[in-house]
Amino acid sequence: MEDRIGQSVRSALDGEPRVDAAPPREWPVLLDRPFGPDDIAVLRHEITRLLGAAGLAGDRQDGFVLAVNEVLTNVVLHAGGSGRVVLKIEDGSVWCVVTDSGPGIPGAYLDELRTPEAFEVGGRGLWLTHRLCDEVTTATGPIGTSIGLRIILDSAA
């Protein structure tokens, strides 16, 4: 495994992407809590409820919850088993920032987000997040990772 500090940004929108994984301004925090392996299902249900209350529904809500679930699962499987999840509203979007203190994401997983092969085991989590979210930010290194997932609340987006 490489020992590198990397950041990646992807934005599907015309706006300027961010390099950091956390929103720069303070907005209403909907959820802020540590999690471990036994919390993933509970968090999925809680995040679904909170997104519905914030006005996100249907396929976009389902896709965002799936993306969050993939990141939470990656933390449990590959980054020491526990982390912190923060869900907040910023400028008409919901941000979910997941942090861990694991060894960082190997560069090969960030450099080229290729479509996984049909029978390939694993390798779909980050790929899915980039397809289901309006923006994904990643800051990773040997002392941990922070992944930010953004979805716009306006259904016309």
Automatic annotation (TrEMBL):
Gene Ontology molecular function, alphabetical: ATP binding
Domain of life: Bacteria
Keywords assigned: ATP-binding, Kinase, Nucleotide-binding, Serine/threonine-protein kinase, Transferase
UniProt xrefs under InterPro entries: Anti-sigma-factor_SerPK, HATPase_C_sf, HATPase_dom
Chain residue ranges for the region called Disordered: 1-20
Domain Histidine kinase/HSP90-like ATPase, chain residue ranges per copy: 37-150
Gene3D superfamilies: Histidine kinase-like ATPase, C-terminal domain
Matches recorded under Pfam families: HATPase_c_2 (PF13581)
PANTHER family xrefs: ANTI-SIGMA-F FACTOR RSBW (PTHR35526:SF3), ANTI-SIGMA-F FACTOR RSBW-RELATED (PTHR35526)
Record protein name field: ATP-binding protein
Originating organism: Actinoplanes subglobosus
Taxonomy of the source species: Bacteria, Bacillati, Actinomycetota, Actinomycetes, Micromonosporales
